[in-house]
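Submission checklist for the structure archive. All mandatory fields must be present; incomplete records are returned to the submitter.

[x] Identifier: Sigma-70 family RNA polymerase sigma factor
[x] Organism: Singulisphaera sp. Ch08
[x] Residue count: 267
[x] Sequence attached
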Amino acid sequence: MNDRSSNHFRTTRWTQVLATRGESPEARHALRDLCEAYYGPVEAFVRRSRPGRDDARDLTHAFFAKLLEGNSLGGVERTRGRFRSYLLGAAKHFLADHADRSFAEKRRGGRAPESFDPGPSRSRSAPQEQARFDVADPHGFPPDAYFDHQWALTIVEKAMRDLQAESRTRGETTRFEILKRWLIASEDRARATEAARSLDMTDGAFKVAVHRLRKRFRQLVHDQIASTVDGPEVLQGELDYLIQALTASHPGTDTNTEATRQAISPE
């Protein structure tokens, strides 16, 4: 791995947090960004861990508020390297602690936790948001696997939003909306020819455009994961794990999820 790659990893959000155990203002801001980005997978894990209860949103909010307190990263092992692993472990610990003491007792002791706003799309009054790339029957997942699956979907959705935003900036929204059907789903040749004509492209140019879009999509997924690990030696393992998490442990994965897995897999 060259020096340029090493420098890139030294400045990711997770390495910034780990370097000072979250004590610097920059690290706390980076941790808050990570928490906001991965609020959904934690809420899904809490909900799956407590079937039949309706307190998942409150517990998730309390978990992130506690996580953002100044001493929450004191025991993090520098060599673990993955924000995903840290977040899941912290959520498990929080739920185990909650089982021993009531939620009211947690909120009453000591100073009030730092406020955490997960954003308007996940406010307490907002309906639960469903991932765009969901599975046909998610109830077959145990909590840990469900967390990993939602983590993978969160990364893929963020990459797709970024890809769409880039196209919008270039004034290519219509082009993107047509090409993306071949990015994450299978389409027959006749429809591809029809789409190429609608964009005033030859079939060959259309294939090249899809290839370039898919390549950029993979890079955006790569960048999302890179911001949550602490070194290049960990990155490939997380990329492989993301691909596995999209379809593992559940034979009924829907067509969109399988196509998304194929889109981000190496060619």
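[x] Structure attached
Curator remark: The chain has two domains: 1-130, 142-267. The mean pLDDT is 75.
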